[in-house]
Design brief:
The chain is an alpha/beta fold. It is built from 15 helices and 8 strands. It has a single domain (5-321), classed as Rossmann fold (3-Layer(aba) Sandwich), CATH 3.40.50.1820. Strands 1-2-4-3-5-6-7-8 form an 8-stranded mixed sheet, sandwiched between helices. It is globular and about 55 Å long.
Amino acid sequence: MPAPLTHRSVDVGDITMHIAEQGDGDPVVLCHGFPGLWYSWRHQLAALSEAGYRVIAPDMRGYGGTDSPADPSQYDRKHTVADMVGLLDALGLDDAVFAGHDFGAQLVWDLPAWAPGRVRALMQLSVPRTPRSPVRPTDGFRYMASKHFVHLHYFQEYGVADRELGDRPREFLTKIFHALSGANRYLDCWDFPSEGNGYLDVLPDPPALPWSWLSESEFDYYADEFTRTGFTGGLNWYRADDYVWEQTEDLHDLPVTVPTTFIAGGNDPVLEMMGENPFDTMKAMVPGLRSTLVVPGAGHFVQMEAADQVNDAMIGFLRDLD
């Protein structure tokens, strides 16, 4: 009989964090991105726990049932790493395998350097490791926004995107899930100018639910949570980019030597934005890289769009660690 899925809140330091847990065994911590929740890992919680692992999926700082500080500086690398170390301490764990997606992947890439000894291995989704940017992130966003609409710049001003997305959460979520999926070309958003456009103006209209990878009831969970909380907590991760860039100056490009696997959708626009072959750069930066999986036809939300393939890859990687 499958292990039950349980929920609780834990004190991880300066915030209280909601976590979902399932199974027993070696711990695996799953870190979501934007616009995600613990629920983004629902397929992995079930599969990995059944394979013999203790799976822990938090609502990250700013999301769902976890505290959401108003100050964007509290989403910097010092705070987000402290959340993960505090989570391990609160659960009495010396270390764990960490998996990350989107902003969660960016955080997890930094964990081996920021929290040495607490990271057994990495399972990274959608966002490959890249060198530290030579320019301040917001300067780069501002330049791109002078050419075309770019959400990274639009999200920087506190309150603007918060109101737009928060007033129409269901519309935004259906649009962004579809736009970043393997069924669409997200970079068509770049055909629009920045001036006079919000995010909802440039995102394509999605087909009606259900989709092959997202049912109406699954979507309703996201819509209900973000209707309740708004999007400010998630947007603050974007607004902390400059803080993270400054704090990681001496650590970002250190080689990642812990065992690592990387998984992405073949139609993920993140890979398209990173040039012809982002894997060569990642291999040089991640000597611990043991395997990669690119799932044809899947997009940015690969753990939901191609759950079976992702689960098989994760379980195979974890068993090789044993």
